[in-house]
Specification:
about 400 residues; alpha+beta; four-stranded antiparallel beta sheet; 8 helices; elongated
Amino acid sequence: MRRSSRIATLLGVFALATAGVALAEGPSVAIVAPRNLQTVAGTTTIEAVPDPGDGRIDRVEFLVDGATVATRTAPPWTAAFDAGDGSKAHVLEVVMVLRDGRSARASVRTSRLRINEREDVDLVTMYAVVRDADGRYVSGLTKDDFRVFEDDRPERIERFTTQPKPLAIALVLDTSLTMEGSKLDAAREAALALLRGLEPEDRCALLTFSDDVRVAEGLTEDRDAIEVPLREVRAEGGTALYDAIWRGADLLRGEDSRRVMVLLSDGRDEAASGLEPGSLHTQEEALDQALRTETMVFAIGFGRRLDEQLDFYRRETLAEILTRLGERTGGRVLFPKRPSALRKAFDEVAQDLRNQYQIAYVSDDPVHDGRWREIRLETTRPELRVITRRGYFAEPPGG
């Protein structure tokens, strides 16, 4: 009996150690789920087993990567968190605090998701905003609330999270002569506010355009590196709108982040002389570049009568052009009328980016023939509206 009891005790100690227990005399706590080095993604539940010994529990705190996600004062000793798309490892900690001031701590580390090369190539990722009939954001949806179709064929959702990847933002600012004065001042301050609201891991680049497109600062996490040239922009020349869109999307190509372009312009693509287009690229080439690089374009059309102002070839209005750009890429278009409304427009862009669901599937068509494939994402609740990109080009690997 003594030998059996000793073996059972040793096995119990070993099991607690592998589960992330802080081994010590007196009170202790263990994390029994998830297991140490387990891969997790999406909504994940941390389950703790506290042992107060001869004390009484005051609270149990749950931390993820150093930040408290929940505090419990009574069972069940569990807490849920969003592990994202599984591409990052996390440190999970549980701290039990007794009423007499003593405490115990346990921790485990999760592993990042590793997928095979074929899946990585075929994975189709969308970032979606969901709104109700009144235009309000809808949060709290789960994977089972969505349906995805490719070329009208139903596909199975492989990954789902409400904490999408960090952002790679190309801030593309019109600095043509028509932006001179209060318009450019308001645009600068609104852009600075957007910049300051980014998360530490987000990166931003600044591009300005008039007769030409200039990359004032490439992608960086250094906010000062963006702020300095942003404060120095001056209005001059014509409007190379399509070249700016093409260059901004090209800069984001291949980024393993949410690729976003925030575009601000107050006029049509036109040279300063008014006698020729402002860009070497066409409108169709600019849109194609945004689609092929899977860049979400948030277009801010700034000015009056943009719904009447025709493009250089007098085929369609600037409002129609910007609307197509935003809708096809899964972004958005806004039309503030006054300089004072620019801050609100940039704030709305930031709100959209903070309320995105990340949804991914592996296409059941393995052929990468470069063909355009239509995507339709919908919810099981028909009264809700889903905003996401309309499709993608099935480019060959490395294409």
